[in-house]
Amino acid sequence: MDANDITGEIIDAAMHVHSALGPGLLESAYEACLKHELLSRDFKVLSQVILPVIYKKSIIDAGYRIDLLVEDEIVVELKAVERIIPIHEAQLLSYLKLSNKRIGLLINFNVLRLKYGIKRLAN
Predict the structure, then answer these.
(1) CATH topology of domain 3-122
(2) Strand order of the sheet with strand 103-108?
(3) What's the pLDDT tens digit per position in 49-69?
């Protein structure tokens, strides 16, 4: 599968989760359910992946974590907020740079229709 196919499957899985749970839960609930949904579709999924910062040739654990890393290729940042703001997009772009990954999805589950809570970003 190429990156477009994988992101399409992630979005479809997120829509299934959102249809089942609706808005209003904590981000951690959506993360666990989306991971479960993706694993049931035979995707390789890691959650809460440590993302170190390289500073002056030193590896520093600054507490950054990728919510979901799918197929070691797509960074998925989940939110359960009133609305996506520019700092959320900046966070995902930073994660893409730090992880040296090309494609990321920003998914906000706290919306009435999930299609309004999804952004795809590229590094």
Answers:
(1) tt1808, chain A (3.90.1570)
(2) 45-50, 65-70, 74-79, 103-108, 118-122
(3) 999 998 999 999 888 999 999
